[in-house]
Amino acid sequence: xSRARAPIPMPPQPVPSPEQTPSAxxxxxxxxxxxxxxxxxxxxxxxxxxAAWRVRPGxxxxxxxxxxxxxxxxxxAVEDSVRLTGVTAAERAAALIAPQLFGSRSFGGGHNDFxxxxxxxxxxxxxxxxxxxxxxxxxxxxxxxxxxxxxxVAIHTAYMRVLTAAYEVRRKAQExxxxxxxxxxxxxxxxxxxxxxxxxxxxERFRLLLGEAQARHQEYLDxxxxxxxxxxxxxxxxELDIKEQTIGLERAQRNxxxxxxxxxxxxxxxxxxIFRGGEMGEIQKGDQVHPGHMFAQVVNQSxxxxxxxxxxVDAERLRFGQRxxxxxxxxxxxxxxxxxxxxxxxxxxxxFRRSFVKSIPVRLKLERTDPRVIPNFTVGADVVVxxxxxxxxxxRECVFTDQAGGAPYVWVREETGWRKRGVELGLRNNVxxxxxxxxxxxxxxxxxxxxAQ
Length: 453
Description:
Blueprint: H1 29-54, E1 70-72, E2 74-90, E3 93-97, E4 116-121, E5 127-128, E6 133-137, H2 140-192, H3 200-258, E7 260-262, E8 267-271, E9 273-276, E10 279-282, E11 288-289, E12 294-299, E13 304-311, E14 323-328, E15 335-343, E16 359-366, E17 378-395, E18 409-414, E19 417-422, E20 424-428, E21 432-437, E22 444-446
Antiparallel strand pairs: 1-22, 2-13, 2-17, 3-12, 4-6, 4-11, 5-8, 6-7, 8-12, 9-10, 13-16, 14-15, 14-17, 15-16, 17-21, 18-19, 20-21
């Protein structure tokens, strides 16, 4: 029995994945690559032939049309206006002025009594009612002056009573002297009547006694006259001193009342500026102001006006009642309606040198207010002097003329290009113009001359 070799086992072969297995009916990978190469070569050949056809002699390239700025015609109202600049102000306002204090500067404490040092002050922009406290000044020195005047009045009144009592005592004593001297005169005259029955020596003695009594009586009468005038003069002088101190007392009382400032009308407080530390700033507590200086205003915001100026040439176009639009520089988004209520007659002065450009004052009244509007805000106002309703409106740069004073026309865009069309213009301003005939809203016009077609 023959012995056969056992078969040698083979290593396992890897099973190809579906992506690696070529699909049935598809060409092999090398055939597909050659096909893509031929397609690329054909595309390059076609591009080269087209470029050669484009640049062949005798054929010019078609020019690319230039872009023309255009604007769509809109409809609406066209207004002609005059621009004004000015500041806001309150039609109803009350100025608060530092009080004028009265009295002698050389009395007592001197000029310190009249210092106006702000002790209490309402905040700028605060709302106040009529009678509310707005400001008060330091009353210390004036209070001391008031007490001193009150003390002097009491002292002088008491001294007046002393003078009056002393005068009555001295007057009674002087009257007694006069009566005694008059009795001595009467006695001497009675004794002289007995002269016929007396000796010559006794008669002469009675005559001497009578003369002495009459002289003494006359002396007392003269003393009484001078005494009465002197005493009455002292009393009158004391009366004048009392009156002077009483007047000073009343002045000090009124000064103290003036040093408290209250709101005369309801509104808001607008503080004024003062020169402090080399620059301007709002008045605040601790500042010293001079008598007659306006330190604040109480304004009623229910009625505001605009004080503006207009060039003398444009002033002829303004009329009472014309409408205006007011814009505040502090609030650019705020626009308020207004009307012209006042136009000045004379031009404003323009300094020391002659100026050929004059301005006329104009006042506008705001028909609607805003809580943010307070006095001294700079504004710009457009006063409408003419208005055209329901018109096709377009910028002035879209209207052309071939010569000065020639017929106006526009370039209208149509399907075939730009077409020249004559128009009839209406009201115009510095920016826009109204077209009465020849255009309608929605059409597109050129903002510059289109190139020749």
